[in-house]
Design goal:
With 193 residues, the chain is α+β, with helices and mostly antiparallel strands. It contains three helices and seven strands, in the order ααββαβββββ.
Length: 193
Amino acid sequence: MKKIALTTFRRFLADEEGAFIVEFGIAFPVLILLSFALLEFSLVVFDYQRAAEATRSGVRHTIISPPIANTATLIVGNTIVCKNPEGTVVCDGGSPSVDANVRWASLMANMTPIYPTLTSANVVVTYEGTDVGEEDEYGGIFPLVTIELEGVKHNMIVGHLIGIDSIEFPAFTTTVLGPGNYVMVAEKIGAKK
């Protein structure tokens, strides 16, 4: 009887039938987790690229359109920073143009097809006076135009499983030398006509 039990026990230990199911049961969840992690990483990279391209497209649109800020007072070293946090354009260091809200809407209409979750609160437009051009001539100085995206987030899909709801991207910034043809220079006091 002892010999039969010992033989049966050895046969049981040597039997590898069904071992694949156990190995598959251990490896399958890891494989699924890695697949979803790769998918999530791809979506993060895709959103990052879309935000960067929206910034580049926005600055190109801004330099070919009339300025959002009133750049007539822009001098070398001066900056005008425009934001639209609550539906109305505000400019620090200067004043918005008469049609600033319409121009901002045009800018957003150019950027949101590229990055649909972008809001006006994420966008900052900066005009910086350079030493390119002449202050006392028509056209004035040529400003550096910068578009910056702040607070842009990617909402995680799989990250919720491990407690990460979203990740915030670093600020995206693109700067281009803009045209001076929209800058109107006031006539100097005492200038001869």
